[in-house]
Amino acid sequence: MQAVAVGENKQSWHRARAFATSLVVATGALIGSPATAQESRTRTDVQWIQAVRQAAQRVNYHGTVVYQAGGEMRSSRITHLFDGTDSHERIQTLDGKAREYIRRRSSASDQVQCLIPETRRIVIEHRNVDESFPGLSSASPEQILERYTLKLGDIERVAGVECQLLMLEPKDNARYGYRLWVDRVSGLLLRAQTLNERREVIEQIAFTDVRIGERIDRAKLRPSWSTEGWSVERNDYRKADLSQHGWLVPAPAGFRKTREVARRIGGSDAMQAVFSDGLATVSVFIQPNSLLSASGTGSQIPSGDALQIHGPTSAFSRRVGDSLVTVVGEVPPSTVRAVAGSVEFRGAR
Q1: How far apart are CA 272 and CA 100, in angstroms?
Q2: Angle at 252 between CA 180 and CA 1, to 5 degrees
Q3: pTM (2 decimals)?
Q4: How far is the CA of 81 from the CAs of 20, 27, 44, 62, in angstroms?
């Protein structure tokens, strides 16, 4: 699952949103009533997943989140408000360089503004709705349960809140497993762990303190700095059809293609295909060598294959003709290697 943007290398604001059979609006008033502990024990697997997704979008909450992967640990403060139609978020990094992410999300779109104070810049990205902690993918519960088995664990406390432990175990070795701690009343996801094939924790993210369902002043969603006079950059993408450019990019087993786009990466153009199994995502990037050289970075396609691993993220690059194919995903190294090996160039139409 994708972690929240607690560091610059987590710019996509990745993963796991919470369930609620009743929803909290921005005024703090309840639509219906929150689930009782007794009701939460009778939820089906599908209802658990639905509840997590809804709570992350429609429950007001604010607190401190800590992310850990490998030797990296970062913290951030998150404030989330649902106004009855759209959800609004502000994420402030608490470690390293100061960054703030201002996000507005509707059912049809997702806009993220990254504020960079030392260069007085705002980077804006428009993209399809992609869930991030504490949210789950927008995939259907049935799609997730095709590839994962959900099991209920113990009742445990996270940030002082009683949570139901959910274990999502992969049905094959092409993906990782997850442990999720979910508030039994609101359905909000408060802690998530990613497990490798040896059931070792390779990534985790959790609230260390959290307030749920309270009224949130809109002033808490404003940036810390006046942005008057700051430069604005847009990091948008456009739709693309890789097959029209001669590329065959098969979907990995158990994954579905969610989009194909063209975008700027590191000063050069690249095409990207994104696949999801409902929790994990895999991206295939294709960059022609001529564009890499023209970017002025001096980058060239490596002569051999290259594998990199950081926490749960695996990346594998290989040369295909005159292009560099790089596959990145929060999946085992064998999966990105297999996906990269399946990419073919058959000539532009």
Answers
A1: 26
A2: 20
A3: 0.81
A4: 15, 9, 28, 9
